[in-house]
Amino acid sequence: MTAPFTIAQLTDLHLGPIAGFELRYWGPKRAIGYVNWLRNRRDAYDEAVLARLVADMHAQQPDHIAVTGDLVNIGLPQEHRAALAWLHRLGAADFVTVIPGNHDIYARTGSRAPLRLWAPYMTANAGGEAYAASGDGFPFLRVLGQVALVAVNSAVPTPPAMAWGRVGRSQLKRLEQILTRLGRDGLFRLVLIHHPPLPGQAGVVRGLRDAQAVETVLVQTGAELVIHGHNHRNMLAWRPWAGGRILVVGAPSASLGRRHPHEPLARYNLYRIAGPAPWTVELIGRGLAEPGGPIVEIERRKFALRDEQK
């Protein structure tokens, strides 16, 4: 690449309000989730704050936007439709890549709706289909110059009070094949996943059930960058592999407008990718430093992916 390629990440939007109270979609899990939204989320996650972050993000002129899940709250059809309208405002489907989170695929009833409604944002582009046919589902692949977005779905319907995820054997096999092919051609492999992908990054109730298997695939095949959401926190980890080291980054919610236990205020990340190999990534975090304040630069760090971590 002659100039850095910039990916912007938004995650865990939790767009409100919750609407669409059709009886067939209700059960214990959605009832508990709705009460939690009323008590804890409704006044904390603010679409006006998100709009300010998005305006600031567009001003930075990223080359592509990745939305790493939890666009909605309890996975009702009307929430999914409202999120689609928001995506249309965010950008065209060839400019925005989306993966679902556990709040999007919340319960068994209606679990396929976001995959259908948001499909234009969750399908391979022509470059990706050259490596992996889109008809195989997740992971889907978008190749943007020398940067390849590998989009994994970790969201599955879970019992009440549970938020764990699973990638599954089929996706793991496909992920291994895709990462291997991309690595042979020297592309920058950027994996998108909602749940933190490494063992120990989330507890039993919220974690990825097959994190060990995901980590094994990543380390055996290699990747350059993995980005995720779910924990609503700034997270950074490394995993070595034969060709260097994998940078794993988690971002906070992009809509949190007031103090909330153990969560930073609204933020988005920019990843400026420079290469080809040896690749470097500059991570720039922008968001709120204080409730009601301006959108400012919170963090800026640059990483080399070839050398072992010091």
How many helix segments? Answer: 7
What amount of the residues lies in strands? 15-25%
Order of helices and strands: EHHEHEHHEEHEHEEEEEE
Instruction: Using the alpha-carbon principal axes, give the shape.
Output: globular
> What is the average of the pLDDT values?
94
According to DSSP, the number of beta strands is 12
Task: Tell me about this structure.
By secondary structure, this protein is of the alpha/beta class. 25% of the residues lie in helices and 24% in strands. The chain is globular, with a radius of gyration of 18 Å.
Which terms would index this structure?
alpha/beta; 6-stranded mixed β-sheet; 25% helix; globular
Short description:
This protein has 310 residues and is of the alpha/beta class.
Blueprint of the fold:
Elements: E1 5-10, H1 28-41, H2 47-59, E2 64-68, H3 77-90, E3 96-99, H4 113-117, H5 126-129, E4 140-144, E5 147-151, H6 169-184, E6 188-192, H7 211-221, E7 225-228, E8 235-241, E9 244-250, E10 267-274, E11 280-288, E12 295-304
Parallel strand pairs: 1-2, 2-3, 5-6, 6-7, 7-9
Antiparallel strand pairs: 1-10, 4-5, 8-9, 10-11, 11-12
